[in-house]
Design goal:
elongated; mainly alpha
């Protein structure tokens, strides 16, 4: 029985990793790791549109229910915080 933690594994050298093949799903990993806030913010509307499109194709009823539930939670949160909905929020509903 050992009294202490096991010895730390040594990191592999670049020579040892030279023949390691990156998986296909990691094709853009390095590009995305170096992406800043504004490039990601510009991509966000497209990503949201894609996600909603996939959800809509999967189940229109479930997607509509999820969107309505999200909106209702926002309304209830606003009412709980301030008692009444702000005037700016009412026309959007």
């Amino acid at each position: 029985m050992s009294d202490g933690p096991p010895p730390a594994a040594e990191a592999a050298s670049p020579e040892e990793l030279a023949d390691v093949e990156m998986p296909a799903w990691y094709a853009h990993g390095r590009d995305l790791a170096g992406t800043g806030f504004w490039p990601m913010a510009r991509r966000l509307p497209v990503l949201v549109r894609q996600a909603l499109g996939l959800a809509w194709k999967a189940s229109r009823r479930d997607t509509a229910a999820a969107v309505l539930a999200h909106l209702a939670s926002g309304v209830l949160t606003a009412r709980a915080a301030g008692g009444r909905l702000p005037r700016r929020a009412r026309p959007g509903l």
